[in-house]
Amino acid sequence: IVKNDFSTDAFTTAFDRLALLGVKVVPQGVPITIEKTDINLRIGSYQLSIDNKGIRIKAGEASGAYYGLQSIAALLSTSNVALPYVEIVDEPHYEYRGQHLDVARNFHSKEMVLSLIRQMAAYKLNKLHLHLAEDEGWRLSLPSFPELTEIGRRRCMSLQDDTCLQPQLGGASSSKRDGFYSVEDYVEILKVAKQHYIQVIPSLDMPGHSRAAIKAMEARYRYFMQQENEARATQYLLSDLEDESAYRSIQNYTDNTINVCLESSYRFVDRVLEDLIALHKRADHPLKMYHIGADETAGAWVDSPACKALIADKTNEVNDTKHLGAHFIERVSHMIASKGISVGGWNDGMGETRVDRMPKDVYSYIWGALPHGAHIQASEQARRGWNVVLSTPDVFYFDFPYEIDPKERGYHWASRRVNSRTVFEFMPDNLPVHAEFRVDTLGHSFESDDRLIKDKQGNVTHQPLPANFKVSGIQGQVWSETIRSDQQTEYMLYPRMLALAERAWHLADWAVPYDYQGKAYSQSTVTFSMEAKQQRDIAWERFSATLGLKELAKLEQAGVFYRLPTVGAKIAEGKLHVKSPIIGLPVEYREGSSAWQAYHQSVAVSGTVEVRAKSHDGKRAGRSLFVR
Asked: Strand (E) positions, 207-351?
């Protein structure tokens, strides 16, 4: 390093990754110059030049230079440390490039989270949405509430919920699925994330999906009532003990929604926020955004005496139970904003609020599926003047199966398959155009009408995105109801997350620009031309080869358990033909029970044949396929 205009430790983790790939910083090495430029560039932008004089990186701020170093790593392969002479001028397409990880349903270790951070940075993702609390668990130790992790960190077969929580999807206590992050653990996660230019966005879901917190505070209530200290017992109570409301959440809970009419609920939220702010400050990683979830459960407060009293009080704006959820979200959002923190939440709950009662700086995460009107939800939230982050489940839910195969784990309520190509082919700037080539979960085509639509009374029910509006970014999701180990989590993340990173950073040449005048799309329209499809397919082949020949080998070096694909095969005229969805990975075949052999090209076979993909290091094989 002959020149570095930034701090000496600004790029330590980038050089660590280069060292892992065989390129270390040494006194007599190829000279690298890292310069700070005054040119007004988008955050994360950089210029990289490699020639016979050495390597030069120019950027307006540290993250851009950091990404320039990561691009050097991208140019390398694990078997060759030579670099080409190049001139690269690069910038991110989206400011928000996120990955969500649910550690609440089933816990995932600190080591796995730190590994995820390293890989996110390697592929220029910059937002880690950490889902820390749910019905099934509370995974973050907070100094003000030891009860949250004393009870919410593990599950057991007990109906009392006094020392642990009842399991939902089977299985009691397990060291693989139970646990929590101590204060020291969380601070370490924050520090490591900062070193990798990643912002951690904590989420402690509320008012719905909050059973862990509710049961912990009820246990706290019983403890202090035994001490005859009613004031402390009710100080942070989240449930109206006289509430006789009967409701059922989508996960079949009847007691998982915070009572939004209790002042103690807001005291709890405020104290949680103050603890979070303190932890982030301790790590020198300021809490810039908090994701409240904003889920609610219909009917949760119908027969709550506290809510009836709130509605009867004419001095507030709440006059019926239907608006109680919005009242909570609006009030909590202003609590968050008053502390200088941006507010985030899922679009369904956020959409119940009134814009004039919400802060200005709001991030709405769209989780509607493409066949079910994701473009309508995005437009509605955009017209509120909010930032929109696409979390589209039939593209970005990485807890869905890779393929339509009973051996692949995952939910399939929005799509029966989400593979790397699904993610790669997505056009985030133009949601409705996907109706031209995608189908719903039943394999049926659908129509996306993005024109101005009015009802019989002349009221506008939908209109296109506001002129020149762009979404703030995209985010992959890993929900962990059925993902019970770190290894399973990595299997579901990789390599799909690399395709997410590609779409978050790069605007594809073949992508169809959005029509702000509005248009209807279906499989009978041809806005996405045959020429554009051919360009997309060529780009996918290139990306697939980059994965298979270079990037998956780098994941192996980093100890990441990525998914090896199931290859396709057929026998024609006595010869075996094999095709892998990821180009460049080793492929093997065998006849009957004979030894496995490397497959390079079509080969004569007889009888039953079995084929499979292999990792570059030869230590792992994908699921095999029998060909007859």
From this structure: 289-293, 342-346
- Return d(Cα 96, Cα 94) in angstroms, integer: 5
In this structure, what are the phi and psi dihedrals at residue 50, rounded to the nearest 5 degrees? -130, 120
9 contacts: CB under 8 Å, gap ≥ 6:
none
| Among candidate residues 434, 445, 558, the one with its CA nearest the CA of residue 123 | 558
Cβ neighbors of 101 (< 8 A, separation 6 or more) are 108, 113, 116, 128, 129, 130, 131, 478, 480, 489
Residue-level pLDDT at 172: 61
Residue 95 a catalytic site member: no
Choose the catalytic residue: 150, 218, 296, 352. Answer: 296
Average pLDDT, stretch 416-434? 98
The residue with tokens 């130790």 is: 141
Residue 248 vs residues 47, 252, 301, 453: alpha-carbon distances, Å: 54, 5, 12, 34
Cα 322 to Cα 434: distance, rounded to the nearest angstrom:
34
Provide the sign of the torsion angle of the four alpha carbons 122, 123, 128, 130, taken in this order. negative
Amino acid (one-letter) located at 579: K
Give yes or no for a contact between 465 and 428, defined as CB atoms under 8 angstroms apart: no
d(CA 258, CA 206): 7
Q: N- to C-terminal Cα distance for the chain? A: 58
Residue partners of 400: CB distance under 8 A and separation at least 6: 393, 394, 410, 411, 412, 414, 415, 416, 417, 418
What are the residues whose beta carbons fall under 8 Å from the beta carbon of 79, sequence distance 6 or more?
553
Least confident residue range of 34-48, 115-129, 474-488: 34-48
Under the banding of pLDDT at 50, 70 and 90, the label for residue 319 is: confident
In this predicted structure, what is the pLDDT of residue 173?
A: 62
The angle formed by the CA atoms of residues 440, 444 and 448, to the nearest 5 degrees, is 65
- Give dist(CA 253, CA 120) in Å, integer: 34
